[in-house]
Amino acid sequence: MRLEPSGRTFTVRPGETVLEAGIREGVGLPYGCRNGACGACKGTLRSGALEYGDHQERAISAEEKAQGRALTCCTRPLTDLVLEVRELAGLKDLTIRTLPARVEKVEKPAEDVAVLYLKLPASERLQFLAGQYVDILMKDGKRRSYSMANAPHDDTHLQLHVRRTPGGAFSKYVFEEMKDRAILRFEGPLGGFYLREDNDKPMILVAGGTGFAPVKAVIEHAFHQGIDRPMILYWGARAKADLYLHDLPIRWQREHANFTYIPVLSDPLPGDEWAGRTGLVHQAVLDDFRSLAGWQVYACGAPAMTDVAKKSFVEERELPADEFFCDAFTYSVPAAAKP
Ligand code: FES
Question: In this predicted model, what pLDDT tens digit does every residue of 61-97 receive, in sequence order?
């Protein structure tokens, strides 16, 4: 396997996907869902033959495949391959590990959201980038992906935001069965959604529901690093109670001159007495900006939101496509319901 333009080579073992081999070799290949649902791992085949494996049409279209595009997360080589793909400098030194963690505290800031505070074993640290996620390894072999809501300077703890979802295996466990001080196992850090620090463009952060979790990590990391790039957070939810940590970004706004908070409700309840913005969260951004040409956008939420945000920001507001970073929940694919 050879990557362009870096020229880096590695061997893909029988049965492995290109991405699995890349992860094993410590290559910083970009990815999101690791199961053919999001398109984040797309590259371009320059030579060789491959099999595409299972994937969703939404992640790569027949037309893109005809143009030689391929998803590294489900592609298996049939011959030697040359693949052109963007490599992530920031992920190079991270090791993906499987570790236990103890549930130290659980808070329920809303009826259907639990905030889990996990403590790593005393001798362990988890090195990660702000915005990445972990896979919780469940006893029955299932995996559930959750973004880390804490910034990486606190690397002895993990904070996860778990929304109760009908039929959600881990959320059912958290809300109905989990005992105090339960031990969980997880694999991580994972994912290519993280703050690009080699850039000084102002940032728009778009969160839908518990998509706030990785966005919170990115913002708290930026504060911790003293990054003074302007940051505008648009947090979209149905009703006020769904902005389950509403007071936190209000406090950030008070304390940091470079941070602005714009909550947007799609379905406020009469009892909310909501005088703020309403409608869809990506539309609020479109309403506020004639051009996003000089911006970076970080978006996390349901694919319906992140897909339409990317399309409209790029096609209607001049956002360069490679300045849009997203982490989509993929509820339709059981292996990766995020966060
Ligand atoms: S489609 Fe490959 S990582 Fe999501």
Answer: 999 999 999 999 999 999 999 999 988 766 655 778 8
Residue 42 CA: nearest ligand 1 atom is 2
DSSP alpha helix (H) spans, 159-237: 169-172, 212-225
Give, for ligand 1, the residue of 17, 20, 35, 132 to mutate: max count of ligand atoms closer than 8 Å to Cβ: 35
Is 197 inside a domain boundary?
no
What single DSSP character describes residue 204?
Answer: E
In this predicted model, what pLDDT tens digit does every residue of 269-323 receive, in sequence order? 999 999 999 999 999 999 999 999 999 999 999 989 999 999 999 999 999 999 9
Distance CA 80, CA 286 (A): 45
- Structure pTM? 0.76
Q: Domain range spanning residue 178?
A: 97-190
Q: Structurally, how many domains does the chain consist of? A: 3
Residue 39 resides in a domain: yes
Same domain for 320 and 233, yes or no, is yes
User: Best mutation site among 41, 65, 83 for ligand 1, i.e. most ligand atoms within 8 A of its Cβ?
Assistant: 41
Q: Are 52 and 130 in a shared domain?
A: no
Q: Are residues 225 and 320 in the same domain?
A: yes
Q: How far apart, in whole angstroms, are the C-alpha atoms of residue 305 and residue 141?
A: 30
Residue 141: how many CA atoms within 13 Å on its side-chain side? Answer: 0
26 inside domain:
yes
